[in-house]
Amino acid sequence: MAVKIHESWRGRLESEFEKDYFLTLTEFVKEEYVGKKVYPDPSNIFNAFELCPFEDVKVVILGQDPYHGVGQAHGLSFSVKDGVAIPPSLQNIYKEIVADLQCPEKLSELMKSGNLERWSKQGVLLLNATLTVVAGQAGSHQGRGWEVFTDRVIDVLSSGREGLVFMLWGKYAQNKGQIIDEGKHLVLKAAHPSPFSAYNGFFGCKHFSKANEYLKSKNLSAIDWLKT
What we know:
single chain, alpha/beta, two-stranded antiparallel sheet, 36% helix
């Protein structure tokens, strides 16, 4: 597995690529792609980093692992490719956005596409804790080393930047986010947007307006969450 990652990230993560855990992870992932159907396509494993350079990050939305259905995953948490049915969690994210920003008439427009590259290009790092998954087997590449790598990504952002917004939805993301320096960044926590938990605190969390208010307080441009 060639580590194709944006140069702004490479300079900060290069040492990880030489560590034993990452070399072992690399060999494991290579073998999985040869013997099984694995998502996303190898060219998209580090897509989140390609679309959102280190210095451009404003918001981090942390997911768990890629979608494991046909044609869904393309390296961005909660996002699917154009033309793919929008997963329930992302539908709920869209519902919260239009409720939070008080523009329910925008929901139908958002629902036309689940491709969140438009957020990435504005500075939203859509980071999964695990970057690969076997088709049809949720969590199949957990505990293989990806979590160590993405912990380092979070640490590099927390220590190397100031004034970021971290959106941590659900217990898994919140536990992973414990390394974030809350004195330097805004950490927003809520239930996961899954249909199983969205009514337990995700709906009504107003994270999207809170993020933009915070960014503006730091003299940074807001994210256009309604961009299509």
